[in-house]
């Protein structure tokens, strides 16, 4: 009886965790730099607590774990990353970053090995509902042009007049982009991309016919996604949708929703034409482009100086600051390089990068071998490929809490489903 109670409790906590992935709610612990940010400080997030509880449940059941070839790759990757503790002086911060990396690897292993205790479809549905919730928050933020009072969920204090808030220069003045409860509009955009992809899969597997409820959910998700005005995510999503359209051109449900996304895109583009023009007009974004070039140059320099083992997980910004590239009034410009591949090589070196890349493509290759669930193979291989493309233009999947949770959650559920269908992983 008690055993059944703990199984149900673990299951519900897992579902709550899935819903709370976007929440930035956290408590400051310690600071190694001059500012309390993700790149030089330690925080305890509410999602960390959920993961810890889930791991304790797993430990209570004896840590039943099946290690596969794929898992050995990520274990070796972690071992290589740990070498930085013995090379660099900033041991406290590096130890914290290694602990965070271990947390996400445990999350992946937990989802993969405790899959029999959860419903895959329920987890996907909860993720979609969480996406709808984030869309509503983002929509209200955008039209009110300020934060809306969800600070206990980690909503950033926002205003179109605040420095450091993502804005667009339009003919109507500066327009603030929505954040949801994320650290940046681009991370919200990626999360809603995931939500829409999960929605497609749910429609294919669980929805018999097109309904007004489904259309409403999709429209809310797409509006929230669109008004983030994230160029890279919108572009990758367009490619993802194009592939799905040709793959499912004979499927009425999928064809309807993909065509609906095109109609909504055109409709919203007319309504928000000034904002679209601002984001398309690259000349207005010259400062950001110049900064990205600086970040790339610094990353290449760091790689050339630390080619084998990098500067340590999470230590790019601290290494960047040592170089003193910017003046005192531009300390905000010290950010990770906006290319996850360069960032990973900078932090863990060519050896660590090779094992992480091998892990990524081993999962992708195993996914291609699924025979029993072709819809899962198509949607989730497309999503993994999209993540690989987004790695080229941003860093949040590698070094921000919510981006890392999305990445390792995706790895976990893909491995979960592969292991249920085949035994390649």
List the SSEs and their pairings.
Blueprint: H1 2-20, E1 26-31, E2 41-45, H2 46-60, H3 69-82, H4 91-113, H5 120-144, E3 167-170, E4 173-176, H6 185-206, H7 212-226, H8 231-247, H9 252-271, H10 273-280, H11 286-305, H12 316-322, H13 340-368, H14 374-390, H15 396-399, H16 401-421
Helix pairs in contact: 1-2, 1-5, 2-4, 3-4, 3-13, 4-16, 5-6, 5-7, 6-7, 6-14, 7-9, 8-9, 8-14, 11-13, 13-14, 13-16, 14-16
Question: Would you mind describing this structure in some detail?
Answer:
There is one protein chain. The chain is mainly α. Helices cover 65% and strands 4% of the residues. It has 16 helices and four strands. The protein has helices spanning 2-20, 46-60, 69-82, 91-113, 120-144, 185-206, 212-226, 231-247, 252-271, 273-280, 286-305, 316-322, 340-368, 374-390, 396-399, 401-421; strands at 26-31, 41-45, 167-170, 173-176. A two-stranded antiparallel ribbon has the order 1-2. The chain has a two-stranded antiparallel ribbon with strand order 3-4. The chain is globular and about 60 Å long. The two termini are 34 Å apart. The mean pLDDT is 91.
Q: What is the N-to-C order of secondary-structure elements (H for helix, E for strand)?
A: HEEHHHHEEHHHHHHHHHHH
Proportion of beta-strand residues: under 5%
Strand order of the largest sheet: 1-2
Rg, please?
A: 21 Å
Number of strands: 4
- Mean pLDDT, to the nearest integer, reads 91
What is the terminal separation in angstroms?
A: 34 Å
Helical region count?
A: 16
Poorly predicted residue ranges: none
State the shape: globular
What proportion of the residues is helical, as a percent range? 55-70%
Structural class: mainly alpha
Characterize the biggest β-sheet.
Answer: 2 strands, antiparallel
């Amino acid at each position: 009886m008690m055993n059944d109670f703990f199984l149900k409790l673990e299951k519900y906590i897992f579902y709550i965790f899935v819903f709370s992935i976007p929440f930035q709610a956290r408590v400051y612990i310690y600071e190694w730099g001059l500012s309390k940010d993700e790149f030089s400080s330690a925080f305890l997030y509410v999602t960390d607590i959920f993961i810890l509880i889930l791991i304790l449940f797993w430990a209570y059941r004896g840590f039943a774990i099946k290690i596969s070839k794929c898992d050995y790759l990520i274990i070796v990757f972690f071992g290589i990353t740990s070498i930085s503790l013995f090379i660099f002086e900033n041991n406290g911060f590096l130890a914290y970053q290694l602990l965070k990396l271990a947390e996400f690897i445990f999350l992946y292993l937990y989802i993969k090995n405790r899959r029999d205790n959860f419903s895959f479809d329920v987890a996907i549905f909860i993720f979609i509902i969480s996406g709808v919730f984030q869309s509503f928050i983002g929509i209200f933020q955008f039209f009110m042009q300020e934060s809306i009072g969800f600070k206990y969920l980690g909503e950033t204090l926002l205003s179109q007049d605040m420095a450091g808030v993502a804005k667009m220069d339009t003919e109507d003045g500066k327009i603030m982009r929505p954040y949801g409860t994320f650290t940046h509009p681009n991370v919200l955009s990626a999360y809603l991309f995931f939500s829409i992809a999960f929605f497609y899969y749910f429609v294919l597997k669980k929805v018999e016919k097109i309904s007004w409820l489904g259309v409403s959910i999709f429209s809310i998700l797409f509006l929230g996604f669109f008004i983030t005005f994230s160029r890279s995510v919108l572009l990758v999503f367009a490619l993802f949708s194009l592939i799905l359209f040709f793959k499912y051109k004979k499927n009425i449900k999928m064809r309807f929703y993909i065509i609906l996304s095109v109609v909504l895109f055109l409709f919203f583009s007319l309504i928000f034409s000034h904002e679209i023009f601002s984001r398309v007009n690259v000349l207005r974004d010259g400062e950001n482009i110049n900064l990205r070039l600086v970040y790339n140059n610094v990353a290449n320099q760091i790689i050339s100086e630390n080619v084998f083992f990098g500067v340590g997980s999470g230590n790019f910004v601290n290494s960047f600051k040592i170089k003193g590239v910017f003046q005192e009034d531009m300390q905000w410009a010290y950010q990770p390089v906006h290319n996850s591949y360069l960032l990973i090589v900078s932090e863990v070196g060519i050896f660590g990068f090779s094992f992480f890349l091998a892990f990524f493509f081993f999962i992708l290759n195993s996914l291609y071998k699924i025979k029993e669930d072709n819809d899962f193979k198509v949607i989730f291989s497309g999503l993994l490929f999209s993540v690989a493309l987004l790695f080229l233009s941003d860093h949040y999947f590698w070094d921000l809490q919510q981006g890392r949770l999305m990445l390792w959650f995706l790895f976990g559920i893909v491995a979960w489903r592969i292991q249920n269908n085949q035994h390649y992983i």
